[in-house]
Amino acid sequence: MRKFSRTLLLCFSMLLIGWSSASMAVNKSNTVGKNSDTTTAVEENKTVKTADLEDLQQQLNEIKQQVSAASKDSQLSALNNQAAELANKADEYTTILLPNLAQIKTQLEVVGPAPEPGALDESAEVSKKRNSLNNEKAKIEKNLDYAQTLKSNAANLSKQIIELRRNALKTQLALDAGSILSSRFWSPIFSPLPEDQLKFDDFWQQLKDTWSAAWESDVFWGSLSLALLSIAIWLCSRRLMENVLVWISARVFPDGRLRRSFLACAMVVGTVVTIYGGANLMYLVFARNYQLTPLMQGFVDALLGLTIFSALIVGLGRALLSIQRPSWRLMHLPDPLAHALRRYPAAMAILLMLFGTIEQMNSVVGSSVSTAIFGNGIASLLIGLLLGSATLRVNKARKKLRAQDETVESRSTIVGLIYLSATVVSVVILLALMIGYIPLARFLTYEVVWFSIVLSCLYLTTKLTGDLCESLFSEHHASGKWIKQAFNLDGRYLEQASILFSAIGRTILVLLAIIALFNGTYGSTTPMTIVDKVIEIMGSDSLGKINIVPANLMNAVICLVVGLYILRTARRWLNTKFLPKTAMDSGMRMSLVTLFSNIGYVLVILVTLSVLGIEWNKLAWIVSALSVGIGFGLQEIVKNFISGLILLTERPVKVGDLVSISGVEGDIRRINVRATEIQLSDKSTVIVPNSQLISQNVRNVTMGNAQGVATIPLIFPLDIDPEQVRDILLEAYTQHESIQDMPAPSVSFSQLTPDGITLSVTGYVSSPRIVSRTKSDLLFDILKRLRVAGVQLSSPQNLVVQNLPAEIAANYTDNAKKDDA
């Protein structure tokens, strides 16, 4: 922080010296030129007619109309030149009228006032001369006021045009403002415009007056005390604050990740508070006993806002890199990489503070567009170089680690995207500056800074939210034990609450981050601005009134991609983290995940259409066309879709059930929007339309946790002992591990025929899916037991006829041949 303050002070000093010297030099030349022009005009002693002033007024009105219709920077630049020329012409007329007015006043003094009543009468010629001079004086004064009004209006119009051009620099990204290698870009330094010098002279004079008033003798010691206290806060309080935060993290919070995430977030907040607090004390040095001018007040307010953002960048860098305490680092970042990046956050903050101050200075004084372009170009150049240098330094540090045979973790997808984006953006910024697209470079510069701030804050806050919920509902911590005892909850409910509240908190943070990314910008957005935008979005009726414009297309695409990513993440979280902690079976979980996905896709599409700008009241023709299509070609698709929703809500069958339909029997593996996947016993899959599961008879073998029945019918000879066989069969069933005790196995006497005795043994198993395996095991065991007991199964009877007569045998042979034929 000490280096940060010294560097910032040095940069401001150099800036003040450069601008002051240029201002003094050009101001002298302007004064000499202006005096010579005035002398020439007086010597010529021209006259100004009312018609000339009315002609200027007409030109001014035409310029105003053209400004309202202008859309290109070249048009605004030409109109600004016309307004400036008009203001100069009005000033020239004023310069002509002032000597004429002075001459008339001198002549009136020579003629003298009108005689008082009772005095000697004056001649008619003198009275006529006085009246003529008074009329001429009134006419000149009227024209003079007219000319001064025209000059003021033209100057204000020129200032408004400059403001429009400066704002256009932030929105017209394809504006060719000239390459940084051209002489036009560097003209504000080597040949500044006279009007800019006048504006900056006034600004520096007000700054000097503010400085002098703060160090007058009667307030000197108070100002010195506040200044020293501010510097002490900047230099010393940070280290003391971090030590206190480490002590609080180690003593107050339980063991776990919450200590690290709390310390990281607290370091960011503490850094912002100390730097911003010191800046406010420094502000009191100049403003406590002195009323700042509106220009100075606006400039100081902008500086305080820039201080917050610069302090936030420094705090985020310290919290994420954690150079002093590597074991407390949240990110999986090797120490060499962290040390390679340690100076970049402070350097980025210094550059943004310095050039943000220059930009705010240009804004409050109303400098020309060329001066604003110069400041934006230099800022984009240095920040682009700094960003490219950071990526190269990280890559160099990783190569050095590999050369030293140290393990380097491979980049994750998100880290790889961040690295690639930083590299591409730095290259694009430099190319845009080279070819002249300075507004594009400025936009990319501030957007990459803003995205970095928002995403870094999102990372820290999501980590803190997850760790806080995990610690709060943990059974091993005092808070979790108290909640468990107070509400008499089971441990799994605490886990569910931890996951659920963590997801809710992270979802809110992600939504706030998305709103901040698309509606905020560096230097002007505050937390209250984001909150106001959220309230505006939630409370507006924009869904029914917005229109499609080309600018919304990119936002709609980004919204669709982000929505699908969030939906995919939420589905994975629901399927892998939250639902497994509940008492639901796998089928119910799969049905809920599918239903959640279907609803999520609908919501993503609706939100995307909203961002795109589609008005719902104008979709009647689309709905009509869809209804006709549904009536013809889409009937089956819609029927299967509705059937799928019925399956997911009523759940007559669910994922994991063993069903039989149309001769197909297997396990349901997935219920999709249109069809259901059934896996057969041979591991093949049958796709069944959902409408068949609703309209046809379906046998659900496992519905209601049904038990399986293992029944084996056996045929024995007539000469066996049925009671002995019954005992053998019951013993085999009872001793098998898959046969349940309740209901108990039983043996029934099914049939008594000349072929033998039919006995059926029945037992129940836990699931129909193991019936086939259980019956196979039982048959092996039963055959083994029957052989040991000497009991045989019934065999088919054969009838053998011997010693047939010849005639009967011949007839039998002929009949057999006919049957074969």
Question: What features would you highlight for this structure?
Answer:
8 strands, 821 residues, five-stranded antiparallel beta sheet, elongated, three-stranded antiparallel beta sheet, 71% helix, alpha+beta, disordered N terminus
Map the helices and strands.
Blueprint: H1 2-44, H2 50-69, H3 73-111, H4 124-171, H5 183-190, H6 194-214, H7 220-252, H8 257-287, H9 294-321, H10 335-340, H11 344-365, H12 369-403, H13 413-435, H14 438-472, H15 478-487, H16 491-519, H17 527-539, H18 551-578, H19 586-612, H20 620-631, H21 635-650, E1 658-661, E2 664-671, E3 675-679, E4 685-689, H22 690-695, E5 699-700, E6 708-716, H23 722-735, E7 746-753, E8 756-765, H24 771-789, H25 806-820
Helix pairs in contact: 1-6, 1-11, 2-3, 2-4, 3-4, 5-12, 7-8, 8-9, 8-14, 9-11, 9-14, 11-12, 12-13, 12-14, 13-14, 14-16, 16-17, 18-19, 23-24
Q: Using only CA atoms, what is the Rg?
A: 45 Å
| Low-confidence regions | 1-45, 541-546
Q: Assign the structural class, choosing from mainly alpha, mainly beta, alpha/beta, alpha+beta, or little secondary structure.
A: alpha+beta
Shape: elongated
> Main β-sheet: number of strands, strand sense, barrel status?
5 strands, antiparallel
**Quaternary organization:** single chain
Q: Give the number of helices.
A: 25
Span between N and C termini?
Answer: 111 Å
> What fraction of residues sit in β-strands?
5-15%
Helix content: over 70%
Strand line-up across the major sheet? 4-3-2-1-5
The total of beta strands comes to: 8
Q: If you average the pLDDT, what whole number results?
A: 77
